[in-house]
Amino acid sequence: MAAAPERLLRVLRRHVSDRRVLEAIAEVPRDRFVPRDLRADAWENIPLPIGAGQTISQPLVVARMCELLELDGDETVLDVGTGSGYHAAVLARLARHVHSIEVHASLSRAAAAHLAGVPNVTLHVGDGSQGLPEHAPYEAINVAAAAGGSVPAALADQLAPGGRLVVPVDDGEQRLVVARRTDDGVSLTELERVRFVPLVGRG
Fold first, then answer.
1. CA distance from start to end of the chain
2. For 116-121, what is the mean pLDDT?
């Protein structure tokens, strides 16, 4: 393995134990998903700007969110906030199919180019806060932007039985929240602090 990916993996292994997730991070070329002038920093454990006021997330946060989704390879996943397409590319190595939605059409077009050759990702332009009910239910939903106050009900409603939703929630401070569909409704688990751009919809 090249030195830069291996250096990043040494950092991630301190916090992430899922072997499949670590392999996916190593296999997806993060430098393909960042602006050309930032490629020297692509394998650093830092977020980077990608345009339209958005960022490519810190690799540790991507890996941690993927681990929390508990993917075994047979899931249909909804990825909210395509951004550069990097998170979708990692998810595509962990699940059967990924539907990824982005509110900024320009970012979705760029992501399509970055994801060329990845057959199990379908890109959509639209209001990710409302999900994609036409393709629901989903065994897993990943949200790469911070919801204000609470888990978006529209997304929780699109979970399959036993499905997992991982979303940053900003209720004064941002924390990762795992929502799980159970026989009794949706259970919530609040985890570590994070920092994401806000989840925005279309009016």
1. 45
2. 96
Question: At a CB cut-off of 8 Å and minimum separation 6, what does 77 contact?
Answer: 69, 71, 91, 95, 97, 98, 99, 138, 139, 140, 141, 142
Spatial distance between the Cα atoms of 165 and 120, rounded to a whole number of angstroms: 20
**Global pTM value:** 0.95
> For residue 179, what are the β-bridge partners?
165, 188
Lookup: tokens for 29: 């070329």
Of 57, 84, 100, 108, which residue is the catalytic one?
Answer: 57
Query: How far is 84 from 136, CA to CA, in rounded Å?
Result: 23
Q: For residue 136, give the amino acid letter.
A: A
Number of other CB atoms surrounding residue 109 within 10 Å: 12
Distance between CA atoms of 164 and 92, rounded to whole angstroms? 16
Q: Which numeric CATH code is attached to 60-193? A: 3.40.50.150
Give the pLDDT band of residue 10 (cuts 50, 70, 90).
Answer: very high
Q: Please report the DSSP string for 123-180 in residue order.
A: EEES-GGG--GGG--EEEEEE-SBEESS--HHHHTTEEEEEEEEEEEESSSEEEEEEE
Q: In whole angstroms, give the CA distance from residue 150 to residue 94.
A: 27
CA 129 to CA 140: how far, in whole Å?
15
Whether 187 sits among the annotated catalytic residues: the reply is no
